[in-house]
Design a protein that fits this description.
Elements (H helix, E strand, L loop, with lengths): L15 E4 L4 E7 L2 E8 L4 E6 H8 L2 E5 H11 L7 H13 L3 E3 L19 H5 L13 H11 L14
Antiparallel strand pairs: 1-5, 1-6, 2-3, 3-4
């Protein structure tokens, strides 16, 4: 029995996803477990991912298929417990949060905005008064220099009034 081709159904393994270039993956340790913080500076969001998830996500460059990324991840992990269901869940989570876009080969015929952030032209975005971006200062060096003189203000001591 021949079924007609359904363009909405795709083989997960043959898809390619590309991690957004503005995302940062920062290594951290949570307890004794290594993990990574995925920083979405565009939306001011932070996500914690474990080492297996990081290994898989870091391979998503828009050229590597999901199948290849799963194979490399399973070979690199000591446990080797990275399943197709794990990969599908991670891909769905990445797409739902707008952290990846579909690769060129798999993205043919996709609806605009699917997996992408901006559907409005960049020229209009520049002049929109609601989307003005101001650079945020990083006062770490300044506050560190002031710490010896003003650190007592932030100490955890309680000063009780006399007689109380």
């Amino acid at each position: 029995m021949d079924l007609p081709y359904d363009h909405r159904v795709r083989d997960l393994g043959s898809l390619t996803l590309a991690l957004r270039p503005d995302l940062r993956l920062i290594p951290q340790t949570l307890g004794k477990q290594p993990c990574y913080v995925l920083e979405d500076r565009l939306h001011s969001q932070f996500f914690h991912v474990g080492l297996p998830e990081y290994t898989f996500i870091s391979l998503l460059d828009g050229k590597t298929t999901i199948r290849e990324a799963m194979r490399v991840t399973a070979s690199l992990l000591a446990e080797g417990g990275f399943t197709e269901q794990d990969a599908a869940a991670i891909c769905k989570w990445l797409l739902d949060n707008g952290l990846v876009s579909m690769g060129e080969a798999a993205g043919e015929g996709q609806s605009p905005g699917f997996g992408s952030q901006a559907t409005e032209p960049q020229g209009l975005r520049r002049w929109n008064p609601l989307l003005i971006q101001l650079p945020v200062l990083h006062p770490d060096r300044f506050l560190t220099a002031l710490l010896p003189w003003l650190g007592w203000l932030f100490a955890g001591r309680r000063w009780l009034p006399a007689g109380g």
